[in-house]
Amino acid sequence: MTHVTMSDIKLVGFIISLSGVILIGIGKKMPFIRLIFKDRSMIYQLFYGSVLFFIGLAILLFS
To answer: pLDDT for 24-53, tens place per residue?
Structure first.
């Protein structure tokens, strides 16, 4: 049986929020990231990045 510690949960939250920041910031310069989501719209890219960032931030704050 594996025990999940708070540091593991915080690491997951950090990775999720970091991927959101990458989608927002670096995704503007790398169009292949937009192709992963089969989307060419910057609005959806900003939306997905923001959602991931806030989910990761919530995990960090509540863990």
So the answer is: 777 666 666 667 666 667 777 788 888 999
Question: Own/partner pairs for 47-53, CB < 8 Å, 24+ apart?
Answer: 48/20, 48/23, 49/20, 49/21, 49/22, 49/23, 49/24, 50/20, 50/24, 51/20, 52/16, 52/17, 52/19, 52/20, 52/23, 53/16, 53/17, 53/20, 53/21, 53/24
pTM of the model as a whole: 0.70
Are the CB atoms for 24 and 53 separated by under 8 Å?
Answer: yes
